[in-house]
């Protein structure tokens, strides 16, 4: 991935206005509707939009300046259409910030609503999919049922009653847009607007289909299978092309965007591909050492408690965490040992502890195993990287 500043062609100290102007210039240059649907133009457009979305936001820009692409990706990305930023997002960003400026003049009034094949694409659908931590570890395949706009079976999506056909709009001649030429002090001015008669469709239905009222679509339920790759995080999403709502008049379907919602597991705290688990042990286990069982995301495992273990000590279990989304193995599981102090003692326990109190050594003044490291989370990071 190229440097975001290099993509937009701006200096690293460029202000917000300069970034916005640079993006607008590139977006208008590479918009696929202006480049006959070129895949290269689509990639350039998406690349410029992603750079703009990061650099326009002060917090994201600060994270990018400090950590590079890793600071703003947050686990999104990967093969099979699994990304943190796709083409539909790029179009939404462009229309959000520049939809009211110049778009119709450049591409025609209907361009913003039509697919590059000419027909108006169906609406995209966004859904959330709940997955467990165990499913994140192994990957999973889920089937969901959605009520979506589908092609009307009675008219095959044309919108016209069976036995009839839509007719070419006489106002625009089938173009879907009307050009008007006006004289001004600067010469001829040409404006392009959506055809008021056919509303940009280029055709007119004289006898609407009674089943769909001329829309060409009907609400139907569909079962959709979703392949969830291992290692996903909440907020990651899969874009399933052509699985959204059908467009009017037999136009292609929009996309289905499936957003991951990873459910919390009370046994673990997640840090990317790494997991943290608190394990309570007794005083004697801490003092003498022991082997104890701890849960893992896909079962359980045994971990050795060394003699003299202090409360808060971190033990690393390599490869027992979650898979990395882009591959490259698994993270680790960190076990934080917590020495449990009983709140109630029976007479025998109290008697033995009082005997121990008479002969035990006093504690040292400083028992921090990692002085100066800033507490628990700093020790966790040290354990992950050590």
Descriptive report:
With 386 residues, the chain is α+β, with helices and mostly antiparallel strands. It has 4 domains: 1-113, DnaJ domain (Helix Hairpins), CATH 1.10.287; 118-165 and 208-263, HSP40/DNAj peptide-binding domain (Sandwich); 167-204, no CATH class; 269-385, HSP40/DNAj peptide-binding domain (Sandwich). 27% of the residues lie in helices and 26% in strands. The protein has helices at 4-8, 16-30, 39-55, 58-67, 70-73, 87-98, 103-107, 133-138, 283-288, 347-359, 376-385; strands at residues 82-83, 125-131, 140-151, 167-168, 177-184, 187-194, 203-204, 217-228, 237-240, 256-262, 269-271, 274-281, 290-296, 299-305, 314-317, 333-339. Strands 1-9-10-2 form a 4-stranded mixed sheet. A 4-stranded mixed sheet has the order 11-12-16-15. A two-stranded antiparallel sheet has the order 3-8. It is elongated and about 105 Å long. 27% of the residues are buried.
Tally of domains:
4
Order of helices and strands: HHHHHEHHEHEEEEEEEEEEHEEEEHH
Level-2 CATH architecture of the largest domain = Sandwich
SS elements, strand count? 16
Terminus-to-terminus distance: 29 Å
Say what the CATH topology of the largest domain is: HSP40/DNAj peptide-binding domain
Helix content: 25-40%
Structural class by helix and strand composition? alpha+beta
CATH class designation of the largest domain: Mainly Beta
CATH superfamily heading of the largest domain? Urease metallochaperone UreE, N-terminal domain
Radius of gyration: 31 Å
Average pLDDT figure: 82
- The number of distinct helices, counting runs of at least 4 residues, comes to 11
Q: In terms of per-residue confidence, which ranges show pLDDT below 50 for 5 or more consecutive residues?
A: 74-83, 99-118, 370-374
Strand order, largest beta sheet? 1-9-10-2
Most strands sheet: 4 strands, mixed
Label the overall shape: elongated
Which band does the percent of strand residues land in? 25-35%
């Amino acid at each position: 991935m190229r440097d975001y500043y290099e993509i937009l062609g701006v200096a690293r100290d460029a202000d917000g206005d300069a970034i916005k102007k640079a993006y607008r210039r590139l977006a208008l240059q590479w918009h696929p509707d202006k480049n006959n649907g070129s895949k290269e133009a689509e990639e350039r457009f998406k690349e410029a939009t992603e750079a703009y979305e990061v650099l326009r936001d002060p917090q994201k820009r600060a994270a990018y300046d400090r950590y590079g692409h890793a600071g703003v990706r947050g686990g999104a990305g990967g093969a099979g259409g699994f990304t943190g930023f796709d083409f539909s997002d790029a179009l939404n960003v462009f229309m959000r910030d520049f939809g009211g400026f110049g778009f119709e003049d450049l591409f025609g009034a209907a361009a913003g609503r039509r697919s590059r094949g000419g027909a108006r694409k169906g609406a995209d659908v966004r859904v959330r999919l709940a997955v467990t931590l165990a499913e994140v570890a192994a990957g999973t395949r889920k089937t969901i049922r959605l009520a979506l706009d589908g092609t009307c079976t009675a008219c095959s999506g044309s919108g016209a009653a069976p036995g009839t056909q839509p007719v070419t709009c006489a106002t625009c001649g089938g173009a879907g847009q009307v050009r008007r030429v006006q004289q001004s002090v600067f010469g001829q001015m040409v404006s392009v607007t959506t055809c008021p008669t056919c509303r940009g469709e280029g055709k007119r239905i004289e006898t609407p289909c009674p089943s769909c009222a001329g829309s060409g679509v009907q609400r139907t339920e569909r079962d959709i299978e979703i392949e969830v790759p291992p290692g996903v995080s909440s907020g990651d999403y899969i874009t399933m092309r052509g699985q959204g709502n059908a467009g009017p008049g037999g136009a292609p379907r929009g996309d289905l965007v499936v957003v991951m919602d990873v459910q919390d597991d009370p046994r673990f705290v997640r840090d990317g591909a790494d997991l943290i688990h608190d394990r309570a042990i007794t005083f004697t286990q801490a003092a003498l050492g022991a082997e104890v069982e701890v849960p893992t995301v896909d079962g359980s495992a045994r971990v050795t408690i060394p003699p003299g273990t202090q409360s808060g000590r971190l033990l690393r279990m390599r490869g027992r965490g979650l898979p990395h989304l882009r591959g490259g193995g698994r993270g680790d599981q960190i076990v934080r040992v917590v020495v449990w102090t009983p709140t109630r003692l029976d007479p025998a326990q109290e008697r033995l502890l009082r005997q121990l109190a008479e002969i035990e050594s006093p504690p040292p003044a400083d028992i921090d195993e990692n002085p100066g490291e800033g507490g628990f989370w700093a020790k966790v990071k040290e354990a992950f990287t050590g």
